[in-house]
Amino acid sequence: MTMPALQFDQVSKRFPGVRALDGVSFAAEAGRVHGLLGENGAGKSTLLKILGGQYRPDGGRLLLDGEECRFASAGDAIRAGVAVIHQELQYVADLTVTENMLLGRLPRRAGLFVDRRAARERVAACLRETGVDLDPDARLATLSIAQRQMVEICKAVLQDARVIAFDEPTSSLSHRETEILFRLVRSLRDQGRTLIYISHRLEELYALCDSCTIFRDGRKVAAHPVMADVPRERLIADMVGRELSDIYDYRARPRGAPRLEVRGLRSAVGGPIAEGQDFSVHAGEVLGFFGLVGAGRSELMRLLYGADARAGGEVRLDGAAVATAGPRAAIEAGIVLCPEDRKEQGILAQASIAENINISVRRHELRAGLFLRHRREAERADAFIKRLRVKTPDRHQQIRLLSGGNQQKVILARWLAEPGLKVLILDEPTRGIDVGAKNEIYGLIHEVAASGCCVIVISSELPEVLGIADRVIVMRDGAISGELPRAQANEAAVLSLALPDMTTTKNSGAPQ
Amino acid sequence: MTTQTLAKLPGRSTFWQDYSLPLGYAVLFVLLALSVDGFFSAVNIVGLLLSVAQIGMVACTMMLCLASRDFDLSVGSLIAFSGVLGALLLQQTHSLAIAIGGGLVAGALIGALNGALIAYLRINALIATLATMLMVRGLAFIVSHGQSVGIADATFIGFGDAQVAGLPAPVLLAGGCFVVFGVLLNHTVFGRNTLAIGGNPEAARLAGVRVERLRVWIFALQGLVTAMAGLMLAARITSGQPNAAQGFELDVISACVLGGVSLAGGKARIFGVLVGVLIMGTLANVMNLLNVDVFYQYLMRGLILLAAVLLDQLHSRGGRA
Hints:
Chain A is α/β, with parallel strands linked by helices.
């Protein structure tokens, strides 16, 4: 074997009280895609931050083509030919593709004026070379998330990065966009670059990676030189540290009478839900909502919850109409929502775990109708931390310092605490969450449904929807395109309803 | 079972982060008491407290505004307007109830208007309250024809002069505000939800907080308390002055920021605000005792504000590591 293009040798990194990386060694050869796996907090992101020059290791060496590197800043890493594409993309929305790709390095004339033509030509050539179809003059604000990501990748290519690392690049991409990304990654690999790829989605790792390394609790626990040879169960067991036979843990439940009925719901704020939508959920049922990104699933749930204004339609729960006055009215009726974007819409980042749990339910127990009951709130928080196994020193911890999975558990606790809970809506409940926490959240979903509540789960991950739902509703272009009971819900059937294609239009004419 | 070693996470507030400001003030106080002649005397301390009574009252509600990620520039104008209005109503009706009630209601309404502009019409708080600041100052001049409005009513003037246990009424009233708003902030849904909408308005809304309504209430309270401070000032100076309290809003916001209230919202401590107000008052008091030129006082106040904010940033950066 030749010398690895990238090598970590006994790298360690500590934070106050946490050993994020503990003597990790890891090597990657050029011309291959290397997957990094592990639960949240396993150390993958710390590794990437060391690679990208954001963190300095406390011990150990980082070698590029056998030469030791010490990056004091992100700039050092870029100059050494390393680019890291983070989950949170780094761009200036009001600048063009060209300006973003050459940010800080725009070619000049007479040392002062931007040489626009030269800049544009360089960028256009780079886009051509990488096969990315984008207008160099488009402003980033007008592009989709996927396109902005392409810009960032092309920027790495333009900087002549030999090592390109991706941190969960597909978490907000649709199927098709993911395919385009994969094609780009493979072509970068074939050019002889070294690629590092982090994802929670095992399907993707199998589709893309040549080899993989698995981390747990800041240590390397396994390395598999040939990805295709590793069975799925083995990967999961390595990551979680135990066997997880069926992470969905589906158990059939008796289905009760219809509880939630939605009729003719449509949006007043624009967006995809232009036509009235109908559906219903039964007591004890887990209803899965699947659709491509932009199909309108989240928007429909926001309408149901009263988060966005309705132009028409009604929601009936146990036969009674639900007021339309906003989220608070929905909560009073027993309908609650865990939003898709945990960070922006779910958590109160600076507040404690206890505060995040109690924010809504405390209204039922005020002393003299005005004063908080601090002890009861503390007891509730402690009870939920224990029951949902939230990993935290105590209830006073700020929620922003928890991992994604633990944050999600806290948001779930907020709603499980509601005494009148009837409908639990979960929008992408496991996005960016590790396998172990996923498994626990699926367990909770079943628990809530078994108690007679309705559970609605939106997910972009088809196996997840198929794994946990009693029934699947598929959306396409802002409308419900079909409905499948668990027995008939398979990948092909769901996808044929979700994709804007020929099969359904042939049978039933135009969908709208 | 996922029993994994529980990592102790960074970012908890520590003893020093929580108490550095009050301890710093205590040290400053002792140093001044030892070194500045005439500082540590009952007369001077009461005078000091009296000088920050108005700022203290309004800082309580400004704290709520800032905690909800808004702020209010109109309080200085409202102090003047409510004083002028109270004095005029007293002249016309000779009724204390009408004068005080009228001033308070006008203040609450102007505050609620600010809140409605910001919450429902979604006008940026800076612009909305800048506009009301100008309009309310204009109103104060219009109703008073630009003249100060004298107050003859002895009972009304008495409110400004009255003393209980050696403390003047304005100081007691300000103290009362700190207690009431401390309880409101820490022990009621109102206070917690105020912090929640400041921290993340959208998340708070989806968690069931009626964000718009709450904003209007916060500003209405701000108006009410500001009008109270305005009437108190009018009683003390025995007249309603249309050009009173120029720049007052900036003093109040400075005191809050000194006290650790984050302009980004979501963070507030009533005790911190109290210390912030006291620091402002103490520095002005000492500079007067030392006969420091007013021009230099401005310079010092600005420097101290900057220093306090920089310190605070160092703290929070340290916590983020």
